[in-house]
Amino acid sequence: MASSVSGTIVPRFTADTLRSAAKLSQGCHVVPVRLRRAIKKYLREKEDPHMKRKVLSLSESFHEVKEVNLLLPRSTSKELVEDPLKSMQSSKRWKIKSAYGDIGLKYRDDETIAYVASRMPAVYAACYRVLSEVKRRLPDFSPAKVLDFGAGTGSAMWALREVWPKSMEKINLIEPSQSMQRAGQRLIKDLKDLPFIQSYGSIQALTQSISKSERQHDLVIASYVLGEIPSLKDRITVVRQLWDLTGDVLILIEPGTPEGSNIISQMRSHILWMESRKIRKLESASHKSSKSLITMKSGAFIVAPCPHDGRCPLYNTGKYCHFVQRLERTTSQRAYKRSRGKPLRGYEDEKFSYVAFRRGRRPREPWPLNGMKFDTLKEQHAKRSPEDLEIDYEDQIESEVDDDEQEQNLVSYNSDITETDAITDDDDDSGEEAEERGRADVGSGWGRIIYSPIRRGKRVEMDVCRATNRDGTEGLFDRIVVTQSKNPTLHHQARRSLWGDLWPF
User: Pfam families from the xrefs (predicted)?
Assistant: First the structure.
């Protein structure tokens, strides 16, 4: 039970809206019918009797990329992360020695087909999860112009179209592999009401083709691509170029491995440092004309997953920040993926690491628990009326079934049955309804649950990354313990919280 503290602060949430706002994790994701049909049609046209062998070969190629990343120093010096090109001449500041694709994964036709069959649905699911959270955390954000760097076969573009089906007007794709470009074009061939789409082979080709006034994009996304750039300096240079092309939001997504998380952490540190340095220079300028340059778009803050913009509290702890999205395996995945001596499951868990930046300053929002008072279990019992003590056995049985389903995360895997379902363009209505029930802002009052909560009897333990001040400039990694006796309301929420959800402070 939550009530207002007498005469001072009016609470922003009730217990129900608080739970709704904190719920960002998703259940077993079903790849949309449109995409499954497009993949099926593409693979029928490219039918190959040796597909399983090619899928295995692609998997081995990804392992080689991982080994190359292991050769790079995991702990980078402060100078390299903050200014990777300090030692280079200013005339060579934006010269890239190794571009995306130089790591050896060229994506020939056979590798592209294997990628569509085995990896595209999982990459789509991870992109959809991230973009859905950005939409929910930023209700005022509806991108019209988008840049997809390392577009591949268009996984991110499919996710963008599902999340913002009506706002997008133009999408610029950067993909050096001609085979990937052809596959992406073939997959969207039968779609209607598409925005204007233009493909380029590199960032340089994009910037040379458009004027400076047209280079800013509302949203820039780079998914599963930075790990394929073998030089740390070149990665940072590419991300700086992408940030220059960003008018509002930049999203980086990498595999949920220690190497992928390390890449995200390095890019996060560099962009935040670069923007804070820019603000310090403007604020220390003696001329009023320089100070007037500080606008609402100056600086940068993290939309997700971090609740703060300080140093990552997981640095040098042996842990790494990543999340998991479960998805139903498509027909092609079940047909071509191999299992290790066991029946192939109807689902798979895609691990990913990500960060979403927004230009400007982090808004100073009231913390969600401000003004809320929670009764202890003893106080709740004292307030009960005789009617509350009557037991409705039917409701009790239904509640127990719901709890079991939540904890075990049981799902049915019948993606083929839904292939005949009607397709509409109003698939995002449920998300809007959820926002009306409760929405978490991007202030510093929401922590992020890292790893799965531990439920022990009438207590729940959660590892939470949280801000330590109102400005969100510092953060820490904390173990939160919630017991039923001290706070039954938050205990109820904690029992239903999952890895990736928010936690209010």
Answer: Rsm22 (PF09243)
